[in-house]
Predict the 3D structure of the following.
Amino acid sequence: MLLSRSTPLRIAKLFIASLSWIALACASRTEASAPPLATSSPAIPWLSTATAGRFLALTYNVAGLPELISRSRPSEYTPLIGQRLNGYDLVLLQESWQTPDPNPAAPLRCYHELLLDTASHAYKSPAAPQPFGDDPRRPSALLADGLNVFSKIPLGETLRMPWSTCVDTFNDCYALKGFSLTPMKLTGELGIHVYNLHMEAGWSQADDDARAAAVEQLIAFIDLHSRGEALIVGGDFNLRDRDRAKELLGKLRERAGLRDACAGCERPNNVDKILYRGSERIDLSADAWRLETSVFRAEDGDPLSDHAPLAVSFTWSKRAIEAEGAASSPPAPLPNPLP
């Protein structure tokens, strides 16, 4: 990894930026009741000719900032998280950064490699390298997007896109926050486009405007590149119980044809969400929703992150398609993958 002369200064900024990031972060620790989920992975083994199946999905912001500045204890808790992830078939991770090798920020480090070592999923998206201010798309970014996907179901190549704008505060512009798209292959011919995201934090008018721009960017990308595809859209939305947040979430659901897996649940305003839709070829249903706070705890009872992990049980089946006129126009080709 080639580093510029200004890298030490940028690393010092990373330390300061992370302090502010933590100060502005909000925890979501309250457990809610919901229909019971399976206690172990229920996925039907992958078959190229399958016509129906089920899988258990999880989205989890793992609070993977360096130990000295994290609100959690990631060096201790990250291996525990990795072990517990093995009970889920599809896992969307936020704030999970990988330590570069060599590491110019030592002794500061990140912890995604500990998840790689302890989670047994056969398919794992490659972690994005840390930019340390050298990415021309966002020169202020010291950290990558922190978005990763683990799966027991075959995955395609992950495409990463940063948000087009950010508010110039330590907790947003100092990372390449954005979204990723990873195709998941249910059978030889059927699949789901899996989106993982981390939206702008904060409560100012500028933060609301940045999230509004992000929603428009995501809707446009889905319309162009995932037209006609079944979708799962999960992650840390940073949309709380406020009128503007409800407006933005409603716009995303309506214009992208998405349903909230939390419809009718006791925590509709949870910042961590999973949305979904089926397609002309796939019927996709969310059967149960639950915050897995009781699963992701240390022996002393402490939560393993400052966010509550959210699990959703999905079932899918192949739809019969009439021979004439059923297929919609194909989506545009995906842009070249970004690091």
